[in-house]
Specification:
Order of helices and strands: HHHHEEHHEEHEEEH
Bound molecules: zinc ion
Structural class: alpha+beta
Number of domains: 3
Helix content: 40-55%
Oligomer: single chain
Strand content: 5-15%
Length: 304
């Protein structure tokens, strides 16, 4: 991380939204043109001097050069003070930006505080500004933008509560869509988050993809197993020439419903993706294993 990035990060907090950083950036760029570059140059100079100190001859040469040029590197204390001032300046800009900014709970874009709806996606914006969202309701401390828990008392901050509510509402909406669009497939209420339901394009039969994030890979694996149970309780079965519980089928009014959990962990181990479509099992629903050939001769006579 560059010195400049680190300054911004220190000033506006670790988890600060990109939006606040964006708002501070122009001001910071302006400052960077002089103060930061000066400080960085000074740091470089010190580093060069330290390297030079490894050899006495080099040291002498460096001192000679410095004396000749007539400049003197600022002391470490001076540089730290300068960087501290810069940091608090950026912190001030970040605070003012946060007071005049709302964040869209849906797309994450920033909007000015007087807006009621997101200019990017049209979603309803919260009443609170970014600064309101990190002001602690319990102890009153004004936290840095992006903070989730109050640094004064540990209370969960309003912005974090609101973000969780928005995420839960979005997940509930996805499950509602599933129930409406795919009524023949039982909804998988697995308790995860970041749910997505997307129709696949370019497939022969209508095909959908559902993904979700669970807390751990183990939880994800258990949730998939549990969904197979739910499917079987709802009449889905292994079918066809290659029966396998990773592919479960059910015929509903003559239409084949197929749930594929075979490749569900090809992404992250805690984010399974399952596939829902209308393909038929290989060999068909009524596939019968061919009977073993009757062996002739003595054994055939004995056991036939
Ligand atoms: Zn938006
Ligand atoms: Zn607090």
């Amino acid at each position: 991380m560059g010195l400049f990035d680190k300054l911004i990060k220190d000033a506006v907090g670790n988890a600060v939204s990109e939006a606040v950083k964006k708002a501070v950036q122009p001001k910071a760029d302006e400052l960077a043109a002089n103060a930061v570059s000066q400080a960085a140059n000074a740091l470089n100079q010190t580093a060069n001097q330290t390297a030079a100190a490894a050899g006495a001859a080099n040291q002498a040469a460096a001192e000679g050069a410095q004396a000749a040029s007539g400049t003197e590197a600022p002391s470490k204390e001076e540089m730290q003070a300068a960087l501290g001032t810069l940091g608090s300046l950026l912190g001030g800009f970040a605070q003012r930006a946060a007071e005049n900014m709302k964040l869209c709970p849906k797309c994450g874009e920033a909007a000015s505080a007087d807006k009621d709806f997101c200019p990017s996606c049209g979603a309803k914006l919260p009443d609170m500004t970014v600064a309101d969202g990190v002001k602690c309701a319990k102890c009153g401390k004004q936290n840095e933008p992006g903070t989730r828990f109050c640094s004064g008392c540990g209370e969960k901050l309003p912005a974090a509560v609101q973000a969780e509510q928005a995420a839960a509402e979005a997940d509930a909406e996805v499950l509602k869509q599933w129930a409406e669009k795919l009524p023949d497939f039982p909804v998988w209420s697995c308790g995860g988050s970041d749910m997505e339901l997307e129709q696949e394009t370019g497939t022969e039969t209508e095909s959908w993809r559902f993904s979700v994030t669970l807390v751990t890979p183990v939880a994800a694996e258990n949730a998939v197993k549990q969904y197979r149970q739910v499917l079987m309780q709802n009449g889905f079965k292994t079918e066809g020439q290659y029966p396998d519980e990773e592919h479960l089928y059910k015929r509903v009014n003559g239409v084949s419903c197929h749930v594929d959990t075979e490749h569900c962990f090809q992404g992250d181990a805690d984010s399974p993706t399952i596939y829902l479509d209308h393909s038929q099992p290989t060999g068909g629903y009524d596939y019968q294993k061919p009977e073993k050939k009757q062996s002739g001769g003595l054994l055939g006579a004995l056991f036939g």
